[in-house]
Hints:
- Residues 1-10 and 12-28 have low confidence and may be disordered.
- This protein has one domain (49-168): Protein of unknown function DUF192 (Jelly Rolls, Sandwich), CATH 2.60.120.
- The chain is built from three helices and nine strands.
- Helix 2 links the parallel strand 2 and strand 3 (91-100).
- The protein has 169 residues and is α+β, with helices and mostly antiparallel strands.
- 23% of the residues lie in helices and 32% in strands.
- The chain has a seven-stranded mixed sheet. A two-stranded antiparallel sheet has the order 4-7.
Amino acid sequence: MIRRCRNLLLPLGAVALALAACSSRAADSAPAPVATAAPAVHPVSHLPVIDLTITPARRDGKPHRFRVEVARSGPEQERGLMFRTAMGADEGMIFPMNPRPASFWMRNTVIPLDIIFIGTDGRILNIAANAIPYDETPLDSKGPVKGVLELNGGRAAALGIAPGDAVRW
């Protein structure tokens, strides 16, 4: 019985070594596994950061991509971009909301902003361009909105973003 087992072990050992050699070669040539990244969080606001795309209504326009902070709760939306002294060119903040008319102001907001009102159909209703820092004059949507996007002042005009363009986040 022992002799018979030894005769079986030698061929099995050879097979195991061959498989190990094949699997290590396959591992060397296989792409590295994709790590699941933790959700992005903004270093200043500690809000989640997501991708947002604006697609022009005109067919010849190219989509514009942004990384935006998401202000969901009442306190997050009240604070918004107050006291911030800088924001990247392709950064912003989105304020998702239940559809309703919206009004924003620039209290304690240091940098000029474009305030983009997004209608219930996901298209831009109107833009309050280059809102003046610290100005408390209400800037109103032209109807119910499902979100408001804030970008650096003048960015919408520079990119040709206009009412009717589609916003997806």
